[in-house]
Amino acid sequence: MFDVWRQALTFFVLVFVLSLILWVTAGPMPAVITFAALFVFRWFFHVRNLVALGYWLEQPETRNVPEGEGPWEDVFARLNKMVRAHRKERAKRASDLHDMELATSALPEGVVSLDKTDHIEWCNPLAEQHLGLDRTRDIGQQITYLVRQPEFIEYLAAKDFTEPLQLHGLLGDNLVLSCRLVAYSGNKKLLVTRDVTRFEHIETMRRDFVANVSHELLTPLTVVNGFVETMQDMPSLENDMARRALPMMGEQTLRMTHLVGDLLTLSKLEDKLNVLKEEVLDVPALLPSCHGVGVALSAGKHQVKLEMLSECKLLGCAEELRSAFGNLISNAIRYTPPGGEIIMRWQVRDSGEPVFSVKDSGIGIPAQHIPRLTERFYRVDSSRSRETGGTGLGLAIVKHIANRHQARLEISSEEGKGSTFSIVFPARRKV
To answer: What is the pTM of this model?
Structure first.
């Protein structure tokens, strides 16, 4: 910057001195003409450099920076240095971006970048295969215009991405995709897809195996249990070992029958072809019978109460909900010592969500066990569960039924102070 001022002032001083000399030697007219001519030349010099700069600015990517003269030489030299640094940095970023694209192309998941309005910004080749996209054509398109399955549109609109969504037959084939949305950089999102067709096939085989084995076990267990009961009723049974063994055999065969029944129920609930049979369910009319079952199961050992805080009905499957309510009630009775209190409650929260809850004054559950309670065969105290006749599948069945009704199972408990199990239904199911 100092050189620019120095050159400009030097030119002005030289022109002024030369004009003074001409004024003294040749008169005022030659001095004025010379002064004006030199300034016009200087003006033309600057205009020529400005034109060169403007010409370069029209296409800076393909044209070279002008060389310039005088004070412009230093300006253009600095500008050329900045351009070279910028191009070098841009080339490095382009190389990094290319490497990132290659890396994401090698990922075992499909990746789609969405802007804040769910328009596609970028996707990797695997996402093109999974979702039927075309990067040359679909960039900038709304994702819901291209992935039109209703469950995906609802998943995107709900903005609850804690659990992945499974899509079946998206492209009219047997492909099963697990889709998860991940928020990043403010309102942007990444749609990550994974092919889980093989795992789904294995899971289907497992469900079919459990269902088939359970079904095959049910008949022999029923026969064995029938013979055991018949032998127990025989008046001539004198053998002490037989008298001790037969009740135990009857108890275990009955427990096995219940276990097989619960496994069959779970297999049915997990079957994708088992569509939920919805109807308007009069819950206030259903709960007194559930209360009666609880009283009978308690056999007078507990105070079983029913609190009806709402008369609203529910859209759902009566058979499944009766099973879920019954499992919660039997669990409460099973884990509440004699003399305890069990309260069944039907209410509607301020948010409009209908809730069925069972509160007990039982042994309670340590906090570290609560997240795993709905796992199959998970037992906080295995010895006590077997003593009380539990199969270890009741809460798993309740969770599956809740999920089929878009409800959630809430569990609150404190060790030694009892527990509360609540099925919270979405407000749209309230009738």
So the answer is: 0.54
